[in-house]
C-alpha cells in the first residue's frame, strides 16, 4: 500500500522501495545523514529545507544507502515518504519534472481532474501541499540539478535526499545542499558484504580466494554483490569466480551475470559513458591507455592530443560525473573496474593506428621528461642522446628541486611506462626510461633498480646496443655491490668489460675497469684492485666532464687507504673531490668527502676528518640516498668523535646512522653499528662518557 489517510484526512504516501537486507558498512555516511535531521521536538522543522546530495560513481551503492537510511528514519516523518527513480542514468529517457510532479501530486491525494497544467503550476501546488508537513523525499538517480529543482519543497519541515552520479554542484551552490560523496568500501566492509551473501562457513573455508575476489572487484559494492551472488547461487566456488575475474578481458562480462542490466557492471558503466559528449568519451577511452595508476594534465593532453587547458576542463568534467576521481591538484585516477571499462572501450572504438599513436605520445612524454630530470639531477653523468623529437606539450621541469619533486610524484608512472614499453618491444623507449630511472639511486631503491636494469638489459640486447648493455650491467652491478652481493656484481662487471674491451670508447672502458677494481677492493684484494684502477686512470684522463677521472681517483684513494698508504690516499681523494666539483657531480661529493675523511683518520687527524664528515652530511641531507650520503658519513664521524673523547656525540651519530640504514633496507650495516653501539652503552661506558664530556 503506497498511501493512507493521516490527520485531518490528509493522504500519507509510503513510497519507499524494498530495503536491502544485507546492507553493510557506511557507518560514517549514515551518521552524516542523521546529522541533517531536525531535532525530534522541532515539529515545525525550523530553518531551511534540508537537502543532501549523495553522489558517487556507478555501482557505488548510492541508492542502497539512501533507501536504507530512509527506512531507518521514516518514523520521523509522520506525513509520509515520496520516492522516484529519475532515470538520470539507465535504460529509457530521464524522467521529466512534469512526469514526476504528476506522480507526486497523485500520491498526495490530488485527483486527475484537479491536476493543474504545466510544470510551474504543478510545482506550485506541490509546494503548497508540503507546506507545514514533514515528508521525506528521495529523488534517486538524478542527472542534473535542473532535473531536481522543480521537485524541491519551498518551506522547512521536509528532508530531501538526492542521489546522482553527477556531483550536483549547482544544488550545493544555489540550494545549500550538503554533498555526501561515496567511495569504495573498505576492506573490512567488503568482507562483511561478501560474508553476508555467501555465508561465513564458505568465507572461512576460502578466505584467500575471497580476499582475491574482493581485490578483483575493486571493492565496488555492485561488483561484489554480483560476484558473491554467483557463488551463493552455486555451483561455483569462490576460487572459480575469482579465476573468471582474473582474466582482464573477461572481467566485465563475468560481472554482468544474471540477465538484469541493472545488475550488470558493464551496463551501469555504459549508462554513465553514454551521457558523455563525444569529446569527453574520447578522452575517457584514451585515459584507459595510461600505463600508470594516476595521471596529470600533461599526460592526459599527450594521450588525447589536446591543448593542456582543454585537457584540464575535460578531466574536471569526468571527475564531476565520477568516471575518474581527483587525488590532488591536476591529478586523477580510475578505480580498477572503470579502468578496465575504459580499456575495453578504447579497444572497441579507437583504431589500432590511433591507439599506437596515443601509446607513442605518452611514452615520448615520459621519456623526454625523464631525460630532462636526469640532466638536472646528474649533470656530470654520461647519458644517451634522445632518439625522439620533444613532445609538443612537454612536462616543464626547471631546476634540481623541481626534478626531485617530479621524480617523487611521477615515480610509479615512470616505472609503469617503462614496463609498458617493454611489453610492446619498444626498445629505445625502454633504454631511455631505464636510464631516466637513475634517480632511484638517490632514493636507495636498490631492489627496484635491479628489476629496471633487467628490463633495460633485455631491450639493449633486443636492439643490439652493446653500450647500453654495458651501462645497465654497470648500474646493476652497482646495486649488487651496495646490497653486498659481490659475486653477482662481479659477473656483471666482467661481462661489461668483455663487451667494451676492444672498443675505442675510453669512457666506458675506464668505467668497466673501475668497476673491476671496486669489486677487488671489497674483497680486500688491494693489489689486484690497484692494477685495474691504474689502467682505468690512464684511460680516464681528460674524457667526458671529468667525472670518470674523478671516480677512478676516488677508488684509487680508497684502495690506498686499504693498503695503509694514507698520504697517497689523501692525494687521490683530494684530486677526486676537485674533479667532481669541477664536473658538477653534486651526487658524488658526499662520498668523496667521506672517503677523504677516512684517509685522514688513518693519519690520526680526527679533527680534519670531523670537518670533512660534517660537510658530507650537510650536503647529503640536501641530495638524497640517505644510506650512502648521510649514514656512512655519520658512522665515520662517530669514530673520530669517539677518538677525540666526545663519546656522547659519537653514540648519537651511531644511533642515527643505524636508524637510517634500517629505513633504507641496509640491515647488515644497521646490525654492525648496533653491535658496535652495545660496547658503548653499558652503564660503565655511559658514566665514562658523562665524565669525559664534563668540562
Explain how this protein is built.
With 695 residues, the protein is α/β, with parallel strands linked by helices. Helix content is 62%, strand content 6%. The chain contains 34 helices and ten strands. The strands form three sheets. A five-stranded parallel beta sheet has the order 4-5-6-3-7, sandwiched between helices. Strands 8-10-9 form a three-stranded antiparallel beta sheet. It has a two-stranded antiparallel sheet with strand order 1-2. Helix 18 packs antiparallel against helix 19 (400-423), helix 19 (400-423) packs antiparallel against helix 20 and helix 25 packs antiparallel against helix 26 (526-540). The longest helix is centred in the middle third of the chain and has 26 residues, at 352-377. The chain is elongated. The mean pLDDT is 90.
Provide the descriptors you would attach to this structure in a database record:
alpha/beta, 695 residues, 34 helices
Largest sheet: 5 strands, parallel
Number of E strands: 10
Q: Would you identify the regions where 5 or more consecutive residues have pLDDT less than 50? A: none
Q: Based on CA inertia axes, which overall geometry fits?
A: elongated
Strand arrangement across the biggest beta sheet: 4-5-6-3-7
Helix content: 55-70%
Distance between the termini: 92 Å
